[in-house]
Fold this sequence. Notes:
The chain contains 1 helix and 20 strands. By secondary structure, the protein is mainly beta.
Amino acid sequence: MKYLFPLLAVLFVSACQPTSSEPAQGPAKLLFSSGFEGVTLGPLKEGYQTITGTDSVTGYRWPITVLGAKNSGLHMINHDNQQALHNEIQTVTGHNGHPTRALYSVENYEHRNDTQSPYEILDITDGRRDLYIRYWIKLDRSSLTQPNKWRSFFEWKTKGYANGSGFRLISFIYTDDDGKPYWVWQGDFDPEHPIWEIENREIPVPMGKWFLTEFYWHWSEGSDGRSLWKINGQVVGDHLGPTTRNHKPIDFIMLTQIYGNANPKHQWVDDIEIWDGLPD
């Protein structure tokens, strides 16, 4: 009998581990919105460039603090003295044909391994929640024309991903043997081992023009999990099933990302929205 209480305690703790987040109740709520109007991109400091200020159109303030995040910024990784990577906020012609402010990012070449510049939403404290993210993005015309190349512009990782006990959700564009680009939507526990993968060769990959990208997930370790990606309103992939492993919450989100071996490459991002669920 002396082992009964410890066993019951273990069973109780295990039963209390969350397997699914609570879906948002009622209509989805807008948590953040910005088109980079009136905000400032700071200089590189300790590997990060921060965006600060209040958007003069939407009234939302940078840096982004969704899911209880404490820090966020553009993480310049292996930037080779800022020669391999560069970020700035530019005035350009937007998706509606009018002048707009947009985040411009360029990767000229890969310096060592993993050269990239994601906008990271960091130190998340409430990583077991639904989230919906949308923004407009414009890719260059030439980087995705060579055979067997890839790039990514969105991903997130749970805690434990670095040691193999977590989960990553990531968007890819690959090119085939003929240099034709196509979409790949993937959940994995390390870069070499997808848990699931959806290829979509039917929806064209827009190059040199703006398109709308949308991401939604329901955090869960059960069959009710969901990972949805749309391009211009068309579904690239809609996977039903776990969106975590070992009960791990989301650690950080790479809201925008410029990463991959299709170089040189550049892109613009504008009109970011983040909601606590799927909008009507």
